[in-house]
Structure formats: structure tokens, C-alpha cells
């Protein structure tokens, strides 16, 4: 069974791999403090300042975490 730490590490790897697959796109509103949140705290930080690109890269990882019993969601942070 995977530990929570290992699941988070894999999810972070997935975010970076998805961002790479998307050509390191940086589109959308410039934000800070965004990322995948768990228990009200951002556990995996955004990969770019653009909110649309960061969210797109995070979607597969959020799905992965939920499938593994972790209630993860996207936190938009705040506009920069």
C-alpha cells in the first residue's frame, strides 16, 4: 500500500510531467499561492504563474489523488 507521502510525490511528478507534455505553457491570469490543496493547505505548488496552465497540469494528479483516497482539490491562490 502506498503511503500518503509517496502518493504526494507521485502526484507532484505527474504535475511536472503534464506541464512538460503541454509544452511548459504559461497561460492565464498571473497568480501566486495556487496549487493542489489537501486539508486546506496547498501541498503541491503551481508549476507556472498562469492559472489556466497550472490547473491543466494539475488535473491528472488531482484525479490520481482522489482515486487513492486523498481529498485533493485545486486552490486558485490569489491574483498577482
Describe the structure.
The protein is of the alpha+beta class and 80 residues long. The protein has one domain. Helix content is 44%, strand content 21%. The strands form 2 sheets. It has a 3-stranded antiparallel β-sheet, with helices on one face. Strands 1-5 form a two-stranded antiparallel ribbon. β2 and β3 form a beta hairpin. α1 runs antiparallel to α2. The radius of gyration is 12 Å and the shape is globular. The model has no long low-confidence stretch (mean pLDDT 94).
Quick overview:
44% of the residues lie in helices and 21% in strands.
**Alpha-carbon distance between the termini?**
40 Å
Q: What string, H for helix and E for strand, traces the elements in order?
A: HEEEHEE
Helix content: 40-55%
Quick one: overall form?
A: globular
**Low-pLDDT ranges:** none
What oligomeric state do the depicted chains represent?
A: single chain
Number of strands: 5
Evaluate the radius of gyration. Answer: 12 Å
Structural class computed from helices and strand pairing: alpha+beta
Mean pLDDT: 94
Main beta-sheet annotation? 3 strands, antiparallel
Number of helices: 2
How are the strands of the biggest sheet laid out side by side?
A: 3-2-4
Determine the strand fraction and express it as a percent band. 15-25%
Q: How many separate domains make up the residues?
A: 1
